[in-house]
Design a protein that fits this description.
With about 300 residues, the protein is an alpha+beta fold. It has seven helices and 18 strands.
Length: about 300
């Protein structure tokens, strides 16, 4: 894979030489730890860099994808013949502003790590983000897919979102305009990019917040295969069912293809058990979907984005 040299050089001038890598292995940047190389891997550090790079890529009709922590993405073994814009490297941080009514408005850059952010909110005594403390991704990704866990969802705490729209304009969208629904938002199609999410949190004692995070962490460790690389829950929850139970009832718990396996601890997780390839994982996902459809008549929709 090799983008035209002049395109690579133009991007280097925008983001800096140290922040542009050629033929970068995607297995090093995804939580499933599989996948071939991206033709170009860029870590922009500001909104203006992102705007300029995307303008160039659109003019040149070069494919691109915005990556956070890579927790919900698999790149095929053949690689990605385009540009990966990774926001988790340099485009992160937050600003908090307390209001007179006791709420706390926190503006968070898209590349900020969920776990790190949850810890910092606890230390500051800002509550409301605990449910997302174990979601292995970034704030941008969590906002894009309306991530949720343990009866919490991003839409419950999002006040507004600054996005870069398909026309290259930076616009502010209210929570209502973001069209949040189950694992979906206005920007789920990937044509717009979350730059910052504005959250409405509230004051609480740091010790109490840490206690709630510790409880959720213990529950995750007990039920989820966190000791193996994965993308988290592999499938969306079908209406009226639980994906993990459907897969277990189909006799697939522990089923293995190559280095990929249906977790024995939680059948809703496909894990990289031992040196899996992207093909191993994707073949296993398809096998699960086919088997569940044939045995129980339910269609499982994959949550993972495939490059």
């Amino acid at each position: 894979m090799n983008l035209r040299q002049e395109i690579t050089e133009k991007i280097r001038k925008i983001a800096g030489d140290a922040n542009v890598r050629v033929d970068e292995p995607m297995k090093d940047h995804t939580t499933m730890q599989v996948g071939g190389p991206a033709a170009l891997f860029v870590t922009p550090g500001s909104e203006q860099e992102i705007v300029r790079i995307l303008k160039l890529l659109k003019e040149e009709r070069i494919p691109w994808y915005v990556l956070g922590n890579g927790s919900n993405v698999i790149c095929r073994d053949e690689g990605y013949d385009g540009v990966i814009l990774c926001l988790s490297g340099r485009f992160k941080g937050y600003e908090a502003k307390e209001t007179e009514d006791g709420t706390v408005q926190v503006t968070v850059k898209a590349g900020t790590d969920n776990k790190e952010f949850a810890k910092e909110m606890a230390d500051a005594g800002y509550a409301g983000f605990e449910f997302a403390s174990g979601i292995p991704g970034s704030l941008g990704g969590a906002t894009t897919m309306n991530a949720g866990a343990y009866d919490g969802e991003m839409k419950q705490i999002v006040q507004a979102v600054r996005i870069l729209d398909p026309d290259g304009q930076i616009v502010l969208k209210s929570a209502e305009e973001m069209e949040f629904s189950y694992r979906h938002s206005l920007v789920s199609d990937g044509r717009s990019i979350v730059l910052e999410t504005i959250l409405a949190l509230h004051r609480d004692e740091p010790a109490k917040i840490r206690e709630r995070i510790a409880d959720l962490t213990a529950r995750r460790e007990e039920k989820q295969p966190l000791e193996y690389p994965s993308c988290g829950s592999t499938f969306k929850r079908p209406e009226g069912y639980f994906a993990g139970k459907l897969i277990s009832d189909a006799g697939l718990k522990g089923f293995r293809l190559g280095g990929a396996q249906v977790s024995e601890k939680h059948a809703g997780f496909v894990i990289n058990r031992e040196h899996a390839s992207a093909k191993d994982v994707l073949d296993l996902v398809e096998h699960i979907q086919r088997t569940v459809k044939e045995s129980q008549g339910v269609t499982l929709e994959c949550e993972i984005k495939i490059l």
